[in-house]
Amino acid sequence: MQSERVGFDTRPLPRQTSAMTSADSSLGATITDSGIRFAVWSNAAKKLWVSIFSANGDRETARHELKRSLGGFWEVHVPALKEGTRYGFRADGEYAPTRGLWFDPYKLLTDPYAVEIDRPYQYDARLATPRNGGGDTAPLMPKTIAKSLPQVAPMAPVFQPGGLIYELQVRAFTMRHADIPPAERGTVKALRHPAIIAHLKKLHVSAVELMPVTAWMDERHLQPLGLTNAWGYNPASFMALDPRLCPGGVEELRETVAALRAAGIGVLLDLVFNHTAESDGQGPTLSLRGLDANAYYRTRRGKLVNDTGTGNTIACDQPAAKRLILDSLRHFVSHAGVDGFRFDLAPILGRNAAGFDADAPLLREIATDPVLYDRVLIAEPWDIGMGGYRLGEFQPPFLEWNDKYRDDLRRFWRGDRAMVGALATRLAGSSDVFRHNGQASTRTVNFIAAHDGVTLGDLTAYERKHNEANGEKNRDGHNENLSWNNGVEGKSRKADVIAARRRDVRALLATLFASRGTIMLTAGDEFGRTQRGNNNAYCQDNDITWLDWDGRDQELEAFAFHLAGLRAASSTLRETRFLNGATPQDPSLADVSWLTEKGVPMDESAWPDQDRHRLTMVLGGTGEGRLAVMINGDRSAAEFALPIRPGFTWQAIAVDGVARLPGESLVVEARCVEFLREVAIR
Question: What pLDDT is stored for residue 655 in this prediction?
Fold first, then answer.
């Protein structure tokens, strides 16, 4: 193959079909015995080149033209190149942004199949200049590194539905942890440190869910504000890991997954397949836009569709985008061994021109793919597009984030009226949402706080959002948190206010751990982390989001450990099957009974009582003996009673480390949850 000089032949080639088939349809860089085969897909390009760079990526040393084959595949084999070669693509064709064509050979493009890049992405306005308007962008772009990756032996996921998912942002989670060596803080490697694993095991974490670790770029509005993207939900590459979080590349992720798996903890990746950092029509050209924007993005009359609120939307119903997503998922299973995935703004995966389809080809293929079929799949079931709220509409095996659970639990503990029925429904697995089409088990992922919104601690300390640090005059983020401040907005030194907030947080945690279905806890909420009332801290890569391990509330943390131990030891609490209620033969054998604080069944007069804030849930039918959860959402203590079976009594479980005597009744303090176990009298 001859090396091409820098320069571009813009003579057009005839258009080809868009079918994703070829005699050899592997994409990206394939290392062979004699060199490297480069392959990329584009239906609309007229010319394509691969640019080869020096070892430090600063100088282009050669350029090779790719040849087009059937189905829009372009390829070239370059002899003598070795693993570690740095490269990027260039594409030429028609430049007509109003028709979704952004071809510009002076824009260096990251390989969509890059598995490693040599530096992070950095926004620069020159990446968004019109054709020939800003010179060669190679000095501004990371270079793709050609890699050969070993396969991971397939193993069943560690995580099982009904367990505890622990959501974390790698950098924020470890930056202030004193036990982690400074050089490892903020990286994926830090997650396998013994101190981190010990903490996760005390919480009986079933799987950590890593907020995005693939390479991202800051949104262009952040640079003038002196801010950076702290969350990573603005991907520039779907497979390549961000060097700031994972400087060791796929090997670092693979070794971390293996260490956590050895401790009985799975790893889920939070992936963003709904948009890219190329943003709107004024955004940078980084990869997909420069290769074939109309094939990878949804467009309408030449304009990018914006169902994400970020400027563009991946065309998940189109062959090129669908294949890229599936190959990315297979990559993380085959080369890193992850348990599964959480999909950001997941309805877009099932979107077509007519709207959302729960049986869309991409969703169906993810669930049935030979590599992916047994992985954990979690949908965030909403986006901002028309008809984008789809809670409960995904099909098994997808689990779903349940914002109705979040909102109803917040309303109940805030003290809203007429919430006891909704509380029972959420505790029991949200059958109103998930019990349809013959489904026997709930697919809910219950959470009270997540990365997006206020923290669990701030929920009880801030009635309003406080996003001033984001530089948008507090206009960004949700205006309604369903939160309360216990009499003082923000930080307080008043002992009664501090005590009330701690009591409320403990009650919220206890309710979460008592709920049927999978539960999710966001890192640091177990020890009272705060974001100072910021409910949209995506751009705060600082001590607003970094966990304060030294200043954590260790009493609250111990309480969370006890709750986690209780749930881990009880198959009744980890069960996901829907509850059916009392059995006519023997009510004491019911899988659930709903009682008033007096120990009598809730009836048609109790359920509609708008001022009722007390409820007892009695779970049974598993062979473990019955378990009672007494919930007092009132502002005053109350005596709770339970029905007694001959030969049995009730004993309070010391989730807070304080043992209590067995008996027929128990005083439940205001704003408190108590657990009791039925035990045989000896």
Answer: 57
Number of Cβ within 10 Å of residue 180's Cβ equals: 22
Domain residue limits at 589: 578-680
Chain segment 260-302, per-residue pLDDT in tens: 999 999 999 999 999 999 999 999 999 999 999 999 999 998 8
Report the number of distinct structural domains present in the chain. Answer: 1
424: Cβ–Cβ under 8 A, 6 or more apart, which residues? 594, 602, 615, 617
SS3 content of the chain, % helix, strand, coil (to 5): 25, 20, 55
Which phi-psi region, left, alpha or beta, contains residue 448 (left: φ > 0; alpha: ψ -120 to 50)?
alpha
The per-residue pLDDT for range 134-162, each reduced to its tens digit, is 799 999 999 999 999 999 998 999 999 99
Q: Determine, yes or no, domain membership for 371.
A: no
Interatomic CA distance for residues 351 and 628, integer angstroms: 43
Would residue 553 show up in a list of annotated catalytic residues for this protein?
Answer: no
Is residue 670 in some structural domain?
yes
In the set 270, 317, 380, 504, the catalytic residue is: 380
What CATH number has the domain bearing residue 656?
2.60.40.1180
Inter-residue contact 210 to 268 (CB < 8 Å): yes
Query: Of the listed 116, 344, 393, 541, which one is catalytic?
Result: 344
Query: Each residue of 466-508: pLDDT tens digit?
Result: 999 999 999 999 999 999 999 999 999 999 999 999 999 999 9
Does 424 fall in a domain? no
Res 587: pLDDT: 62
Considering Cα of 432, then 438, then 440, then 443, what sign does the dihedral take? negative
Q: Based on the residue annotation, tell me whether 60 is a catalytic residue of this protein.
A: no
In this prediction, residue 488 carries a pLDDT of 98
Token pair belonging to 74: 């372009």
Q: Whole-model pTM?
A: 0.95
